[in-house]
Design brief:
By secondary structure, the protein is α+β, with helices and mostly antiparallel strands. Helices cover about 20% and strands about 30% of the residues. The longest helix is centred in the middle third of the chain and has 14 residues, at about 65-80. Its EC number is 1.11.1.24.
Length: about 170
């Protein structure tokens, strides 16, 4: 049985320290594969987006203000990036909740994926919060060969990512 790495003292939720499960992903790493759900029955993995530059926007739940704003911002930006880029928003929300949110918010460029079933993405990318089983907010940018080119782990769940830095790193790859 494989021991899951625990990282403490690097993230907080409402100012309270939490434990992140999984490794810290760094620029230059080969991105770990993962399986998440597109809907209740359909699983997808990193290979489903082969050949594309990927911005992976990790949010704890689309039903919170910061996550809503983050997803909306990347949806607006996605329209400007072309067909060689895909933006994936991953949370542990059920696919039903993600679909409802996207419909109500007019999200039609970002692909929402659910880590609800096994928390496999959260553990592979070091964002699963042990205490509450949500994924901590983060941004990962992968080139077309799945090499990690940009990483931002947010230290507080309620903080916004550095949108400008992430978008600049993304644009340098297309």
């Amino acid at each position: 049985m494989t021991q899951i790495q625990e990282r403490t003292g690097i993230a907080t939720v409402g100012g309270n320290p939490v434990t992140l499960l999984g490794p810290e992903i760094k620029v230059g790493d080969q991105a770990p594969d993962f399986k998440v759900n597109k809907d209740l029955l359909t699983e997808v993995s990193l290979s489903d987006y082969a050949g594309k530059v990927k911005l992976i926007s990790v949010v704890p739940s689309v039903d919170t203000g910061t996550c809503d704003a983050q997803t909306r911002r990347f949806n607006v930006e996605a329209d400007k990036l072309g067909d060689d880029v895909v933006i994936l928003t991953i949370s542990v929300d059920l696919p039903f909740a993600q679909s409802r949110f996207c419909g109500a918010a007019g999200i039609d460029k970002v692909i929402t994926l659910s880590d609800y079933k096994n928390r496999a993405f959260g553990q592979a990318y070091g964002v699963l919060i042990k205490e509450i089983q949500l994924d901590q907010r983060a941004i990962f940018i992968l080139d077309a060969n799945n090499t990690v080119r940009y990483v931002e782990y947010l230290t507080e769940m309620k903080e916004h990512p550095n949108y400008d830095a992430a978008l600049q790193a993304l644009k340098e790859l297309v």
